[in-house]
Amino acid sequence: MKFARKKAPPPVIPSASMSDIVFTLLLFFMVATVIKKFAGLPVDEPEAYQIEKLTTKTHTSYIWIDDTENITFDDFPIGSMADVYTIARDKIEKDVQLLIFLRVDKNSKMGLLSDVQQELRKAGCLRVYYGTKSKPSANY
Fold first, then answer.
1. Contact 39, 127 (CB under 8 A)
2. pTM of the model
3. Would you give the distance in Å from CA 9 to the centre of its chain?
């Protein structure tokens, strides 16, 4: 008498917890991912011996000024100084704790930077920071 071999059923992969694992991974990546807000302009920043890092970026807007006198305010190109005033005034009305972070090319003209500073002052944006690169300490 010949006995037929029973075929073992293929192993079953439990898929009940698969959706929990996928949801947990999705939640983890949503929390851990930092989305870059602005691209800005290519700027070669000046160097400084002593720099201080901003503690928070939640109430921060960025202004870039490159060496060809292009200005962007949070990635919006600025056509005139009146635009700087208008955008800055709108932002300061929405967020009183607003910080303006200026990233200025080291070869840009000081007059343009001074004009931007005057418009920010007129708009009421008095908390202005400047971006620099770190320079090794001087040996005095």
1. no
2. 0.71
3. 55
